[in-house]
């Protein structure tokens, strides 16, 4: 049996979106096509998609010329529907049933590879942090987040959205909000606006440091963002005054005032 249209597939397989799985199906064909091309042309590119649901974006990725698409889906109902689409595209589409948090996308396709996905909101941030650890393995990532999360990814120092996620992301990649997606484009409509973010990995990190050390420093600093560094960094179990002095940063400054490079200097101090 061939897959048929997206709406036909949803109806035939009884694919009602499930809140427990964070499912909101995107049905607007124009927007789906824009997401597929958010990272640029796909000719010859291998794509990993997370949470394809009934396969709207999957179809667009294939139509846009992706050499191969591997879609990770945990809902058995959707896996059955996607199998029909895979049968229509032999050698170009593979469905992997499982939890994306437990799967390394890098192992699924050879380079050149990208991740393009309408991410389930409930796991979007932990997925991104996991991918950032090996972001140099990808040409680009085109990901949909809640708009609030997208703003955190792209926020600059001295803004209210600037935080730990901003620093970790911008240290390794250049994030850009490509466009917003209104709630009405989904079934069911979420309560928030979404944004598609394009992340292009830097040729090298903005400054040298260890990922885990940068996580520790930003977690401590932004965990008490209203306090001066001499107070917020005390939770690291090190002398915050000495740590700041070694990094050349005044201990009276606050987390939101520091650049990515300055956080990296603090992280190097934590490493000893």
How is the secondary structure organized here?
Elements: H1 6-12, E1 25-26, H2 29-36, E2 46-50, H3 56-63, E3 68-73, H4 76-88, E4 93-97, E5 113-118, H5 124-132, E6 140-146, H6 147-154, H7 164-172, E7 173-181, E8 186-187, E9 194-201, H8 211-223, H9 229-232, H10 240-247, H11 260-271
Parallel strand pairs: 2-3, 2-5, 3-4, 5-6
Antiparallel strand pairs: 1-8, 6-9, 7-9
Helix pairs in contact: 2-3, 7-11, 8-11, 10-11
Structural overview:
The protein has about 270 residues and is an alpha/beta fold. The protein has two domains: about 5-200, Vaccinia Virus protein VP39 (Rossmann fold); about 210-270, rRNA adenine dimethylase, C-terminal domain (Helicase, Ruva Protein, domain 3), CATH 1.10.8. The chain contains eleven helices and nine strands. It has helices at about 5-10, 30-35, 55-65, 75-90, 125-130, 145-155, 165-170, 210-225, 230, 240-245, 260-270, and strands at about 25, 45-50, 70-75, 95, 115-120, 140-145, 175-180, 185, 195-200. It has a seven-stranded mixed β-sheet. Strands 1-8 form a two-stranded antiparallel ribbon. Helix 3 (about 55-65) links the parallel strand 2 and strand 3 (about 70-75). The radius of gyration is 20 Å and the shape is elongated. The termini are far apart.
> How are helices and strands ordered from N to C?
HEHEHEHEEHEHHEEEHHHH
Q: Give the mean pLDDT.
A: 93
CATH topology description of the largest domain:
Rossmann fold
Radius of gyration: 20 Å
Class computed from helices, strands and strand pairing: alpha/beta
Q: Count the E strands.
A: 9
Helical run tally: 11
Strand fraction: 15-25%
Distance, first to last CA: 61 Å
Give the domain tally.
2
Q: For the record, what is the CATH homologous superfamily label of the largest domain?
A: Vaccinia Virus protein VP39
Strand order of the largest sheet: 4-3-2-5-6-9-7
CATH class of the largest domain: Alpha Beta
What is the makeup of the main sheet?
A: 7 strands, mixed
- CATH level-two architecture of the largest domain: 3-Layer(aba) Sandwich
* Apparent shape: elongated
